[in-house]
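Weekly modeling sync, notes
Attendees: S.R. (lead), two postdocs, one rotation student

Agenda item 3: backlog of single-chain predictions. S.R. asked that every request posted to the team notebook include the full sequence so nobody has to chase files. The rotation student volunteered to paste the first one in as an example of the format we agreed on. Action items at the bottom.

Example entry:
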Amino acid sequence: MNLLLFTAADRLGDGRIRIADHRLQHLVQVLGAGVGDQLRVGELGGLGGTGRLLEISPAQAVLAVTLDTAPPPKLPLRLVLALPRPKMLRRILRTVAELGVAELHLIHSFRVEKSYWQTPALRPETLRGYLLQGLEQSRDTVLPALQCHRRFKPFVEDVLPGLASGRRALLAHPGDYPPCPRGLRQDTLLVIGPEGGFIPYEVEHLAAAGCEIVSLGPRILRVENALSTLLGRLF
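Predicted structure, as returned to the notebook:
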């Protein structure tokens, strides 16, 4: 935890906050924090700054906070991602938050097993927890916007054109396509499929919605590796 995130519910008034959950355990067991220590803190959705530990016990920690630092800027990116396997979802969501993706859309595709949509990992509180871990790692305070779309065709026909409007829309797909561009400075929409890519029917519909098909080369990467590689090249 590189940042102690808190919300309005943690405020005591007079510039103080109270922590009494898993964050307290981290302060005690991992950081070994004591009275007088200075910690990096941030208010979820707001500013970051420093917190001075006023008291700490097995029941609670109280900190005096000073907030004076804006969160790091988000990437100018809307990311569309075929729903990954549940075991991979946590890592990918953490990466999305760590790297500063502004908006994420999880979608269905032919190679996404329908059972993936039944995983407890898609519960709102669980998704939020994964994203918060990424914010804590990167010292960010602003959650990415997240939406789930369980049907491919309504998404690509009714939603995607609006998402792509005014942006450069890219579909990363294996095959003999132009290489992924580097160092973009414009608003971008990036679509990443499941491992092995989208089926031809889906590629045709994505292209018809305005997506430019690009490639990372002949190797087939795991989704989590493709995501990091693509964002590194693009931004």
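Discussion: group reviewed the output briefly. The chain has a mean pLDDT of 95.
Action items: rotation student to repeat for the remaining queue; S.R. to check formatting next week.
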